[in-house]
Design a protein that fits this description.
The complex is a heterodimer of chains A (220) and B (219). With 220 residues, chain A is α+β, with helices and mostly antiparallel strands. Chain A folds into 2 domains: 77 residues, Glutaredoxin (3-Layer(aba) Sandwich), CATH 3.40.30; 127 residues, Up-down Bundle (Glutathione S-transferase Yfyf (Class Pi), Chain A, domain 2), CATH 1.20.1050. In chain A, 55% of the residues lie in helices and 8% in strands. Chain A is built from 11 helices and 4 strands. The mean pLDDT of chain A is 96. Chain B starts with a strand and ends with a helix. In chain B, helix 4 runs antiparallel to helix 5 and helix 4 runs parallel beside helix 7. Chain B has a 4-stranded mixed sheet. Chain B is globular and about 50 Å long. Chain B has 11 helices and 4 strands, in the order βαβαββααααααααα. Helices cover 59% and strands 8% of the residues of chain B. The longest helix of chain B has 27 residues. Classes of the chains: A alpha+beta (220), B alpha+beta (219). At the A-B interface, strand 4, helix 3 and helix 4 of A face strand 4, helix 3 and helix 4 of B.
Chain lengths: 220, 219
């Protein structure tokens, strides 16, 4: 499959775009990740391919667009079956979708509620974020990955969000490693995977972006 | 695939209705258990400890939570009849996109329509209609979002039709006047037994909304 047949409209720091890149990497697929200038001006292709939300990621397979990262990852898993990201049995898949949905509903917003704070971060914001990670630790249990012994769907959905945690830690004055050591170990384990390591931005670079964004929004 | 199926539900919940429709489409016998949301059962709290919400589908004693996940699970397990999702992965992804759009927009905007007044309500009504028009666009000339038969998006959206009367009364507007194609689609769905028997009477829903307004202290 030539590179041009798989195109991702991308933004380097977007955890949602990272999900798609990791999924494609897991499947050993060649693709083009085309950067979008979200602040300067979105491309015609982006606006035409995602007229509803006008957001990245947009994944184009032979020119056919798909939007929403979790849906894209699902599509990639169904179209290129090896190695499988979702478990083989229906119940296992329902559980995986449940945790992906939980992560989608909770993690990025709770993390944002910490790093977007003007001045002192309220204890409630920090606690809410930590509680969510603790819930995920419970779901992880003694497994190496959310998927079990092997890296899978929920791991793909979750790991990209973690490059934003350093920003919350710096601004909130806590560390995930101290509050949620199991979750922290899982993070380290995932970051050792080539499919993840070769696309995840450095947390310090994400923090620089967060500081720039805070200035732009008038928080700093 | 057989085995006891229990649905923990609450009669006016659009989310519960989705699962009811899916079970009915597949002809699955199940036990329906009405939850009192002011006094949730131990079973509900045990089966959905994370969100503590209905609907919860319990199959062979194991819980599946979140309505769209339940519908997909039902479709996969009882895969020998009445398919809800298309077999083509791209078409499946498109169906998931629109079901997700319904989740992101219709519930919240609909809630704003009945909960608010004045300018906030006018904005909610406008955005609500805009979202329904986008769905009309996706429907196009098809009988159902699923094509010739009920599909995933139809199941995701049709429960809200039972709340349209309440939205219209509270918002003082006509959804049919703005989105005739969508209402035609809704009436077509209501002719299906699986849908008709899963949706509550619109007057009962309106009574329920009036009761909620009293409870929340909304004029």
């Amino acid at each position: 499959m030539s590179k041009a047949e798989l195109l991702l409209l991308d933004f380097w720091v977007s955890p949602f775009c990272l999900r798609v890149k990791i999924a494609l990497n897991e499947k050993c697929l060649q693709y083009e990740a085309r950067p979008e200038d979200l602040f300067g001006g979105k491309s015609e292709l982006l606006l035409n391919s995602n007229p509803i939300y006008k957001k990245v990621p947009v994944f184009l397979h032979d020119g056919k667009p798909l939007c929403e990262s979790t849906i894209i990852v699902n599509y990639i898993d169904e179209t290129w079956s090896s190695p499988p990201l979702l478990p083989p049995c229906s119940y296992g898949r329902a559980q995986a979708r449940f945790w992906a949905d939980y992560i989608d509903k909770k993690v990025f917003d709770a993390c944002g509620n910490v790093w977007r704070c003007k001045g002192e971060v309220p204890v409630e914001a920090k606690n809410e974020f930590i509680e969510i990670l603790k819930q995920l630790e419970e779901a992880l249990g003694d497994k190496d990955y959310f998927n079990g012994a092997t890296f899978g769907f929920v791991d793909v959905i979750a790991i990209p969000l973690t490059c934003w945690f350093f920003s919350a830690e710096k601004i909130g004055g806590f560390t995930v490693a101290e509050e949620c050591p199991k979750f922290s170990s899982w993070m380290k384990r995932c970051l050792q995977r080539e499919s993840v390591a070769k696309v995840m931005p450095e947390p310090e670079k994400v923090y620089e972006f967060v500081l720039m964004f805070r200035k732009m929004q008038g928080i700093d | 695939m057989e085995g006891a199926v229990v649905l923990l539900d609450f009669w006016p919940s659009m989310f519960g209705m989705r699962t009811r429709i899916a079970l009915a489409e597949k002809g699955i016998k199940y036990e329906y258990r009405e939850e009192d949301l002011r006094n949730k059962s131990d079973l509900l709290l045990q089966m959905n400890p994370v969100h503590k919400k209905i609907p919860v589908l319990i199959h062979n004693g194991k819980p599946v939570c979140e309505s769209l996940i339940q519908v997909q699970y039902i479709d996969e397990v009882w895969n020998d009849r009445a398919p809800l999702l298309p077999s083509d992965p791209y078409k499946r992804a498109i169906a998931r996109f629109w079901a997700d759009f319904v989740d992101k927009k219709i519930y919240d905007l609909g809630s704003k329509v009945w909960k608010t007044k004045g300018e906030e309500q006018e904005t909610a009504k406008k955005e609500f209609i805009e979202s329904l028009k986008l769905l009309e666009g996706e429907l196009g000339d098809k009988a159902y979002f699923g094509g010739e038969n009920l599909g995933f998006v139809d199941v995701a959206l049709i429960p809200f039709y039972s709340w349209f009367y309440a939205y219209e009364k509270c918002g003082n507007f006509s959804i049919e006047a703005e989105c005739p194609k969508l209402i035609a689609w809704a009436k077509r769905c209501m002719q299906k037994e699986s849908v008709a028997k899963s949706l509550p009477d619109k007057e009962k829903v309106y009574e329920f909304v009036l009761h909620l307004k009293k409870v929340y202290g909304i004029e």
